[in-house]
Write a structure and sequence with these properties.
The complex is a heterodimer of chains A (720) and B (435). Chain A has 720 residues and is α/β, with parallel strands linked by helices. Chain A has 31 helices and 18 strands. In chain A, α15 crosses α16. The chains are: A alpha/beta (720), B alpha+beta (435).
Chain lengths: 720, 435
């Protein structure tokens, strides 16, 4: 056999086929490999000397990472895509037929990721042996790209592990780690990577003539209450109806109907369960075809490719190498500082020294880091000893002892220019030359912070988002003075902390804060015009943001918001100003969640309730009235998008791609809309300008369209 | 020692560049749930952080404990693995009772002098809050048999021979294995033999506390003692020793009952060192390496001496035997020494030794020397308190003394210091530092 993408050997009746896609670092499925797949399957099916097949990967990078997403971009119609999917389904059905029809066991030997099409291949086997290696994970992440499993995942997965467990995997896109995979019956055995193929061969041999005697979920798992409950629901039509209804409700609550893929995935599972496999596979192929050419999937794939590209972006135009960062100093051990310390030690593996004003502050910071590490240990992402090692990288101090030999200083103290300037001066006295000094600020211009610096070339901003451990974006802010080596170093280190990094030019509010201010300001105008808090926040959640602008203001802190907004007004004039009644919030001692008083009501424990109806009176506002939600949507989203366009026009943003990633990763801009610039392209710059002009006519100059939008409207040029 | 200048071997000379210790805390209190390894790791981590040294610059870690944690018998290596050092850093553990971190210090120094290493971290830690308590021999036999048994009945059978007395746990030894005499009994015996009165012991203990309190007030320990944040919730931070008492007095000390000889004795909890948790560490370098890396040595090692005596006799007279060895090697007499720090296991032990130091007769009889080692002037002796007032985490004490004396030489910017300990087994250790 002449195979380009497989190694294939037969020994003592057991064939071992190791997938090794030619010319690619990782195994993916695309039509280019179909011929080899078919050849392997035919050989196993027809060769009488072959009694069983072990299917694995010859690549260290993992089993099979799924479909080649680049291939999706070549599909132009739903019909074309559906036809391609049917071909894949047929191919995988022929793998399954090896054991279901020819009686030859197929043992899937999995180390590293088996995702999407990778898991679907694995599901066709008669048995799955997986390793407990750190990279082994199984999942169906298709919905994250706006599509559904197309290789039988919606049909075989529910059959193997039950409907509820399958829906959990398919609808969320979350992957499953080895021990959980064993527990839910997705894997038959978990073994150390070193013995994977030996065990797989052995199990293949044992299965010959003995198919159907598979163990399935472990006895304990089968007796677990959740499993018993699931079985009770799943084995009768009434129970199944309840189950599907519940899943649908939960999915709708999460997607607001903005993401068609999970709904279709659910439907495909349901069709398969209720109407049998033929209808199920058919539904899967049809739905996939429609979804892969949908704007939502295109936007989500656009983000995926953008995030892949950003892994290689350096943020600078020259070829300057980053300096290695082994030791980080974090000044200020509050929520932000402790979060930065955590990702620095945990993800980047650096030694971290935290400076705090007193021992209690050091203690709180250490407790935070330790708590985060303990969570990783509890979830078995780290061994206890590894956790201990990481914790021993983090120390704290109340003086400048132990800060001299540091590679990068990240200051994360209170947003006060004087404080940040004086700290910078002290830091320069302690650390050596050539050390990057970064400020974690969300609004203060870096040039101002660096105004008195001896080495302004080493100063930049590293704007993290709270909670640092969770939020994926890092916005790095560079001034005209910032040297490329400093930028390169910060970008490199940010990536090691696990962040998606965008580099923006210095200016009030940089990019993310700057586009947030007119958006929030517009929410206040809407309040002044009579809209209710529920209507405003509800409209934005429906539009696809995780929270609305007023709840976000409560979370950020209304005093902080007012402070930032003043900085923006000073810099950009009235278009950044909210309506005049806003100071009323602070006069009424409303600071948001932090003091339990804001747009929403909070109980003693800080738990948020509904809207605090007294907020209107506090602002001197009359009774609420109904505003069309389309008006609320337009005013809010266009205020943000217009400002984003200005950031691109002024060179704050290096690219529209950065702008999209920054808004999605940092502000929760709806991913299915692809980011502000992607969305402008979808809607058309001309249409956006028209809507802005109409708003400007009614509400004034704050809606004056950015010049770059008019230019694109004129030329028909796309942003992305 | 080879060469003509004491402390210099093959052109190499050991510099004490830095050092640090945790606060010393009475056992069972704030550090109750902190393991010996955690204490040692914390002090080494913080020492590295403060020194500005990278972990991969360290060639070797020599560390010790007296009460070994069964989970980490080679504590030095465990510290390297747990701390921010590459796994390639060599490490081994030593034990020499209360002279353990004098031994780890000398071991580290020797490896530098011989060119085996340029940069070494040494020290010791002990937690007496959770001593290892072992099973009786009978129970251990049953466990081992059960482990070896191939089937369930065999495993059950292994326990059949157990007797109730086998179930009683066996606490760690406090008596000398050879003599069956506890250290306190030895101190008691020395007090009686050497005519050390209760009054003299209490006065010495009182002075020890006064000096320790004064030293803390004067800031002597500020840079030697790290703030220890107690995990996992880090709500408690201990940033100073908890044992020195400003409010003690001769009257209060006199009220305490003798512990070891309740009827006729004079050794009390007040004039003995308490059970303590703590750790200490020293950063040693070859002097040329230190200069090259821009480190300013605090002090240099000039000589050392170890001695051993019959434990059936006065167990804790080690300092009086080890000191003349170290002094001879240093080419010095006691009169040349500017500051002296002797480990205070018991006031009775310290006073027995100072008495011996001053006695020609003792020197003739015990050392075969014509003249006494020398009388120790009060104003040069245990300037900043000692183990009675600061506490005594066994393996951490020697390094604690060496660090304080090295810093004292920095303050004086000249001079020589003698550090000496007695230790279980009839051992004595002495080290001469210079600047």
């Amino acid at each position: 056999m002449d195979l380009k993408n497989f190694s294939f050997e037969v020994d003592d009746g057991i064939a071992v086929a190791l997938f090794d896609r030619a010319g690619e670092p990782m195994n993916t499925i695309a039509p280019a490999v179909f011929d080899d797949f078919v050849a392997v399957i035919e050989r196993v099916a027809t060769d009488d000397e072959i009694e069983a097949l072990v299917f694995g990967s010859a690549k260290k990078s993992g089993f099979l990472a799924g479909a080649d997403i680049r291939y999706f971009e070549t599909l132009s119609t739903a019909e074309e895509a559906t036809a391609a999917i049917r071909e894949l389904q047929a191919l995988l059905a022929s793998v399954e037929a090896l054991h279901t029809e020819s009686g030859k066991p197929v043992v899937m030997a999995i180390d590293g990721p088996a995702l999407g099409g990778g898991l679907e291949v694995a599901l066709t086997g008669s048995m799955r042996i997986i390793t407990d290696g750190p990279k082994t994970q199984l999942g169906q992440p298709e919905v994250q790209l706006g599509v559904i499993p197309g290789g039988g995942g919606t049909q075989r997965l529910p059959k193997l592990i039950g409907i509820a467990a399958a829906l959990d995997i398919i609808l969320t896109g979350r992957s499953v780690r080895p021990h959980r995979a064993r527990k839910i019956g997705l894997a038959d055995e978990v073994v150390p990577p070193e013995v994977l193929l030996d065990v797989a061969r052995k199990r293949a041999r044992e299965s010959v003539g003995n198919l159907g005697a598979q163990p399935g979920p472990s006895v304990l798992a089968r007796l677990s209450p959740s499993h018993l409950q699931a079985m009770a629901l799943e084995q009768n039509p009434v129970g199944r109806r309840v189950l599907f209804k519940k899943a649908e409700e939960q999915m709708l609550a999460e997607t607001k109907g903005n993401y068609p893929a999970p709904a279709r995935a659910l439907q495909a599972v349901k069709v398969g369960v209720e109407q049998g496999p033929e209808a199920g596979y058919d539904a899967e192929a049809t739905f996939f075809g429609h979804l892969v050419v949908s704007p939502e999937s295109a936007a989500l794939r656009g983000l995926f490719f953008a995030s892949q590209m950003m892994k290689y972006a350096t943020g600078i135009s020259t070829n300057t190498d980053p300096k290695p960062v082994d030791k980080v100093a974090v000044l200020g051990g509050g929520l932000m500082g402790a979060g930065i310390a955590t990702v620095s030690a945990l993800k980047a593996g650096s030694t971290v020294r935290i400076k705090e004003v007193d021992d209690a502050g050091v203690g709180r910071a250490l407790a935070h880091v330790n708590g985060q590490i303990a969570r990783q240990v509890k979830r078995r992402r780290l061994r206890a000893f590894e956790g201990e090692q990481i914790m021993n990288k983090v120390t704290g101090s109340t003086d400048w002892d132990g800060f001299s030999n540091t590679d990068l200083v990240i200051e994360a103290v209170f947003e006060s220019l004087d404080l940040k300037q004086s700290l910078l001066e002290q830091v320069e006295g302690v650390v050596g030359d050539g050390v990057v000094i970064a400020s974690n600020t969300s609004s203060l211009p870096i040039a101002d912070i660096a105004a008195k610096a001896k080495h302004p070339e080493a100063v930049l901003g590293m704007h993290y988002f709270s909670p640092v451990e969770k939020m994926p974006l890092l916005e790095i802010i560079v001034t005209d003075d910032t040297a490329d080596w400093a930028t390169a170093t910060a970008v490199d280190f940010g990536k090691k902390q696990g962040k998606t990094v965008i580099v923006v030019k210095d200016g009030p509010g940089f990019y993310t804060t700057r586009i947030l201010v007119p958006y929030t300001g517009e929410a206040f105008y809407l309040l002044a015009d009579g809209a209710s808090v529920e209507a405003i926040d509800g409209a934005m959640v429906q539009w696809g943001f995780p929270v609305g602008p007023l709840l976000l203001s409560d979370e950020v802190g209304l005093d902080v918001g007012a402070h930032i907004s003043q900085i923006m007004v000073d810099a950009f004039g009235d278009r950044m100003a909210g309506p005049e009644m806003m100071p009323g919030l602070l006069d009424d001692d409303r600071k948001g969640r932090k003091n339990g008083r804001g747009f929403y009501a909070y109980d003693e424990s800080g738990k948020r309730g509904g809207v605090d109806e007294s907020v209107y009176a506090a602002l001197g506002l009359g009774p609420r009235r109904q505003l069309p939600s389309s008006e609320i949507e337009d005013r809010l989203t266009l205020a943000m998008i217009n400002e984003a366009a200005r950031c691109l026009e002024e060179g704050i943003l290096q690219s529209s791609l950065d702008g999209d990633m920054g808004a999605v990763m940092g502000l929760g801009f709806p991913p299915f809309r692809g980011g502000p610039f992607w969305w402008i392209d979808v809607e058309g710059a001309g249409a956006i300008v028209d809507r802005l002009d109409a708003l400007a006519e009614r509400h004034g100059d704050r809606f004056a369209a950015a010049q770059i939008l008019r230019d694109h409207a004129e030329s028909g040029k796309k942003f992305r | 020692m080879a060469g003509t200048q004491p402390g210099v071997v093959y052109g190499r000379r050991v510099a004490i560049v830095d050092g640090l210790r945790t606060p010393f805390v009475k056992s069972g209190k704030e550090f109750k749930d902190v393991s010996t390894l955690e204490l040692g790791s914390a002090v080494v981590t913080e020492l590295l952080a403060r020194s500005g040294l990278d972990g991969d610059q360290v060639d070797r870690v020599v560390y010790g404990t007296v009460v070994h944690d069964v989970a980490s018998p080679n504590i030095a290596r465990e510290i390297v693995l747990a701390c921010d050092m590459p796994q390639s850093v060599d490490a081994y553990s030593v034990t020499r009772a209360c002279a353990t971190s004098a031994q780890s210090f000398v071991d580290g120094a020797q490896s530098i002098l011989l060119g085996d290493a340029d940069i070494v971290i040494t020290g010791g830690a002990d937690s007496l809050s959770k001593p290892p308590i072992t099973y009786s021999d009978g129970f251990v036999d049953a466990l081992m048999d059960a482990n070896a048994a191939k089937d369930v009945p065999g495993k059950v059978k292994a326990f059949a021979a157990l007797r109730p007395k086998d179930l009683a746990p066996r606490p760690p030894a406090i008596a000398e294995r050879s003599t069956g005499v506890t250290m306190g009994d030895s101190a008691e015996l020395m007090a009686k033999d050497n005519g050390i009165t209760r009054q003299a012991q209490d006065e010495f203990a009182l002075r020890s506390h006064q000096k320790a309190v004064e030293a803390w007030e004067k800031g002597i320990y500020d840079d030697e003692v790290m703030a220890f944040h107690v995990g996992p919730d880090y709500r408690v931070t201990v940033d100073r020793d908890t044992i020195p008492r400003a409010d003690t007095s001769l009257e209060k000390l006199a009220e305490l009952k003798p512990v070891f000889d309740r009827k006729y004795g004079s050794v009390t909890a007040g004039n003995s060192s308490p059970l303590t948790d703590g750790a200490s560490a020293l950063l040693l370098m070859d002097t040329k390496v230190a200069h090259k890396l821009g480190f300013v040595p605090k002090a240099f090692l000039r000589s050392w001496g170890f001695a051993a005596l019959d434990p059936n006799w006065q167990l804790l007279m080690g300092p009086s035997f080890a000191t003349p060895i170290a002094l001879d090697k240093a080419g010095l007499t006691l009169g040349d020494i500017d500051v002296i720090d002797m480990h205070e296991a018991f006031a009775a032990q310290v006073l027995s030794n100072t008495q011996a130091f001053a006695s020609d007769e003792w020197a003739k009889k015990r050392l075969g020397r014509d003249k006494a080692i020398g009388k120790i002037p009060d104003d040069k002796f245990n300037l900043y308190g000692g183990s009675i007032s600061l506490g005594h985490p066994f393996a951490a004490t020697g390094a604690r003394q060496i660090l304080t004396m090295a810093n004292e030489l920095v303050r004086r910017d000249t001079g020589t210091a003698l550090v000496t300990q007695c230790a279980a087994g009839g051992i004595g250790a002495a080290v001469v530092l210079e600047r």
